[in-house]
Amino acid sequence: MTVEEFEDFYAQTVARLTGQLYVMLGDQHEAQDVVQEAFVRGWNRRRQLDRSGQPEAWIRTVAWRLAVSRWRVRRRAADAWQRSGAPPHVEGPGPESVALVDALRQLPAKQRRTMTLHYVCDLTVEQIAAETGLSASTVKTHLVRGRTALSLRLQDPRIEEAPGA
């Protein structure tokens, strides 16, 4: 099957196959997902699809098997959650954490990553350099600039500025 033939095949059958899988699965979004994934797999095998003579049946079968596989994964996950019990209650982030994350989001991506690796993951400058591919001096520069930027964004509003400052 040529690229053009496959594109035509897709255009002619995608809606029908999605409708068929929707009826089989009872979930429109799941039907769309598995049909698209089946077409992606079919694209890689378009020459074999041409020889089989039943490409629509092949796509439908692959989509069904993908759905069944997803069900199995979800079922195993649900069983695992039941065996382990409900997850423990975790408090939401406090205002300080929210403020810190918001301030970090305002930093350039490389600075944000460097600051997180150093202060949250507790990595050394050398470890950060190895993980990110940056030089140690660049890591240090990101840390200095990141601390400076955060100090400006995270000033404690309870502390008043000295008069005349």
TrEMBL record:
Alphabetized UniProt keyword annotations: DNA-binding, Sigma factor, Transcription, Transcription regulation
Record-annotated RNA polymerase sigma factor 70 region 4 type domain positions: 99-150
CDD domains reported in the protein's UniProt record: Sigma70_r4
GO molecular function: DNA binding; sigma factor activity
PROSITE patterns on file: SIGMA70_ECF
Gene Ontology process terms (BP): DNA-templated transcription initiation; response to stress
Location of the RNA polymerase sigma-70 region domain: 10-76
Pfam families the UniProt entry points to: Sigma70_r2 (PF04542), Sigma70_r4_2 (PF08281)
Similarity annotation: Belongs to the sigma-70 factor family. ECF subfamily.
Protein name per Swiss-Prot or TrEMBL: RNA polymerase sigma factor
